[in-house]
Specification:
Layout (H helix, E strand, L loop, with lengths): L2 H5 L5 E6 L8 H11 L7 E3 L8 H13 L5 E6 L5 H13 L4 E5 L20 H11 L4 E6 L10 H13 L2 E6 L5 H14 L5 E2 L1 E2 L5 H11 L5 H36 L4 E5 L4 H7 L8
Parallel strand pairs: 1-2, 1-9, 2-3, 3-4, 4-5, 5-6, 6-7, 8-9
Length: 292
């Protein structure tokens, strides 16, 4: 079912993002985590797409199985960096054949080890190009796009980045999911500025639990998001005093409080970056009041 139609119902929700395990022998464990999370009745689930399209076959197979075998409403991520029109059509055709009618249109990161990679296809330089192509060629497909409360690292300013989001809306984007953030004020200020700019599509907050201190520092260096200094200090103290488990416990508790605050302040729902970890997500949404 089209995510835009579900969002139009106005019910508070949880949605989930997964990534394809690299090795097929890890898939049974992955689907075990999916089964544990099914009790959350997520509005939709999304599946990421590797740098340069490196995991597109796995993405296709996973979204098909999530729909067919698990009764979930899936959305496939799709990146256009380095892609040809034929490859994009092949992917979108496969989604249609699997009965999947939701796609997240992204520019994507360059292939690993190629930071200066330049897309060869001038028609697909930006996510807005991909959104426009999908909207024209696959009008039945519901298109999600990305938003950046603290701006994309390559954007000159937040104002410029909001203009890019407006363009993605104009080219067919039906809703946006934000980059991770750890200060909810950033999200609400971003939504307010988007509305003032004429962006009317739903903007869903993306929440990432910190389960590992080293990995979050690496992620932050790539995505441009910030972490409150006092929270980082608490994480480092937890790591020094109790190791990985203490970091995990603090990260889950913080994400739990973050989600509660988002809902209480009027966010339409929360989109959890699950890291394929069911128990952490179950702990985060515990007692989350979606009836507000």
């Amino acid at each position: 079912m089209r995510i835009s139609d579900l969002l139009a119902q106005g019910k508070r929700f949880v949605s989930l993002e997964f990534f394809p395990p690299k090795e097929k022998d890890a898939w049974p464990a992955f689907f075990g985590e999916v089964e544990r999370l099914a009790v959350l009745n997520p509005l939709f689930v999304s599946v990421t797409y590797g740098a340069g399209g490196s995991t597109q076959v796995n993405t296709l197979e996973l979204v098909a199985r999530l729909k067919r075998d698990h009764g979930l409403n899936p959305m496939a991520h799709l990146t256009c960096v380095g892609a040809s029109e034929d490859s994009l059509r092949g992917f979108l055709d496969s989604l249609g054949q699997a009965g999947v009618d939701n796609v997240l249109a992204l520019r994507g990161d360059p292939p690993q080890g190629q930071p200066d990679f330049k897309p060869e296809n001038a028609a697909f330089q930006h996510a807005s190009d991909l959104a426009g192509f999908i909207h024209a060629a696959y009008p039945g497909m519901c298109i999600g796009v990305a938003g950046y409360p603290e701006k994309h690292p390559q954007a000159e300013s937040l104002e410029q980045d909001i203009d890019y989001l407006l363009l993605k809306q104009q080219r067919g984007g039906a809703f946006a999911i934000t980059q991770l953030f750890f200060n909810n004020d950033h999200y609400f200020a971003f939504v307010e500025r988007c509305r003032a700019r004429g962006i009317t599509i739903p903007i869903l907050p993306g929440v990432l639990p910190i389960l590992n201190l080293a990995s979050i520092k690496r992620i932050l260096s790539l995505c441009g998001a910030s972490i409150p200094p006092d929270y980082l200090a608490r994480l480092e103290a937890a790591n020094d005093g109790g190791g990985a488990q203490a970091v995990r416990d603090l990260g889950v508790a913080f994400a739990h409080d973050q989600c509660r605050d988002l809902i209480a302040r009027g966010a339409p729902g929360v989109h959890l970056y699950t890291l394929n970890k069911a128990q952490a997500c179950l702990d985060i949404v515990r007692d989350l009041d979606l009836e507000q």
